[in-house]
Batch of 2 targets.
Target 1
Amino acid sequence: MLARSSLRAARSARSISSPTVTSDAQRNASSQSSSESAAAWKSNGLLASSTLLAVGSVSWYYYQFGRPTQAMTPAEEGLHAPVHPWEHTKLYKTFDHSALRRGFQVYREVCSACHSLQRLPYRKFVGSFMTVDEAKALAEESEYDTDPNDEGEVEKRPGKLSDYMLAPYKNDEAARAANNGALPPDLSLITKARHGGCDYIFALLTGYPEEPPAGAVVQSGLNFNPYFPGTGIGMARALYDGLVEYEDGTSATTSQMAKDVVEFLNWAAEPEMDDRKRMGWKVMAVTSVLFGLSVWVKRYKWSNVKTRRLAYQPPPPNAQKQPGSVFRR
Ligand code: HEC
């Protein structure tokens, strides 16, 4: 195919440099006059100015209407979180399941005092970072309402694997009342619900300065955090070095705990990620084989069409006269 196309190219190149072109050029040269060159200048100028006008009007339109509008200034928006190379976000990586176990421990011992995780049932923990028995024991620590009995009484029962995690407060109002009016959001989908995802939450948890910088105005009851939009956040710094004791011996620094809990929260928002990636690779493997096959089949089926040559052979002038000629009518 390559050979064929290069042959074709060579042929056309030859036809371009053939004497017909030279004679054309000579003819043009002999008939060229000053009025013609002025016309060429005019059309070139017209072309250039209309291009300039088009480019100019597109850029003016973009300047006027195309740029994104921001409701808040960058300062009000909060500091941009530094981007970290999260292992689990790579295409070929799963969650680090021991980090998930540590992260859940941090959530349970620290964040669950204020934040709910209501979209997660205990059964999800099984096989991810807990055994069945551990998850059952954890579920049984919480009490849930039973269905009403024959007398309409609602009783309490220990939790089961199918139960969802309980919220720390009865309702949003109780949560606000306990937190100076600020509502601690449910953390089930928080990595998806915030601009910057994992990076933002990591920056938020580790970004509390010892003291607010000089000149910063912090309302009473709020804490200074440069990453939070508006910089005044209702949540005080939650993580301090050595706050939890990891059972696998990892040293519990603030950033280690923040990293683990962020990875855990990402798992909570996206528990299907490991399966999704594995399935994705399978799909890529199968479809690339199928693609290769279909390219081969196409070439195979078309090879007859691509390599045949159709030629018209006019009958020889005396065909009819010749006895036994195929052209005889
Ligand atoms: C003492 C209660 C308390 C604890 C403990 C706590 N938080 Fe918060 N958190 C809050 C409150 C209150 C807010 C709402 C702040 C606001 O809107 O000003 C909040 C907000 C947040 C937000 C949302 C910020 C935003 O952009 O809206 C995240 C994320 C968060 N907390 C994560 C955590 C994590 C992770 C932990 C555990 C390491 C934790 N919090 C521990 C009270 C708490």
Note: Confidence is low (pLDDT under 50) at residues 12-27.
Target 2
Amino acid sequence: MPVPMPNARSPLTVVLDMDETLVHSKLELRCPQGNILPIVDPRQSEDRSKALQEPEVPHDFEFSIPLSPVANGELAVRVHKRPGLDDFLEEASSFCNLAVYTAGTEDYAQALLDLLDPCGRMKIRLFRDSCSVVDGLFLKDLQKVPGELSRMVLVDNSPASLLLQPDNSILVSSFYTDPCDNALYKLLPILRELHRMDDVRHYLVKEFALRTALEHSGYNLTEISLKHESLANQMESQNSENMKPSYSLKQGISVKG
Ligand SMILES: [Mg+2]
């Protein structure tokens, strides 16, 4: 059995949000009969009104999700990649473990990720059913991601996603279609810094102080953590009775085509 090297660190795990962090998607409902159908938005629910102010640029790829046989239609998804994304994934995956953790639904996110990352550089994928819904917010719990919290960072555009482990988080601006966006270029040197640290939280707290910023924005982090723990306990007891989790309910906004 190999003897562990003294002071050997576990790999840095970088947990990436998908929508508005790596990509921006535009949805179009295609229905042969011209019917207007209420559907659930497969993306994380958030204000995307700023997308309308950004330039119209060609999308990078598209796919469609079939609706139910009864609805007889499909949801077309046009995807814009954040500038530098391919290089970022290539370079970041050379020195850390990449995971994606999205509040998007699994059918939507799997289809998108298969096209976005065909080589599987983001080895771990977590979807909406891995989020906790507290007060209508999708929370991401890094305890569900394999790896040590001291060597893990979540990169997300949504403050709500960070509420459970703000000391492990980097908040990035939302990406829509801006071809001059450079967030991923700025992120890479930070990840290289974190890669050299035993506990990334010291650096992240000092640099970004997200816990303080979130509390100043009105989030009661203690109350949110308590609600999350209560829901997690409920789920655990339900799972032990072979029942479905009560807090993986699909939520979203209605869109019309
Ligand atoms: Mg997002």
Note: The chain is about 25% helix and 20% strand.
